[in-house]
Amino acid sequence: MQPARFLLGCHSDELPVPLMFARLHHLSHHAAWRRQLEMLLESAGEGIYGIDLSGRCIFINRVGAELLGYEPDEVLGRQMHYLIHHSHGDGTRMPVEHCRIFKAFKEGCSCRVEDEVLWRRDGSAFPAEYASYPIHDGEQVVGAVVTFTDITERKRTEAALHAARAELERRVAERTAELSATHRELRQAHDGLLRLSAHLSTRCARRSAPTSPVRSTTTSAPRSPPCSSSSTGCASA
Question: In the predicted model, is pLDDT for residue 4 greater than 60?
Answer without folding.
Answer: no
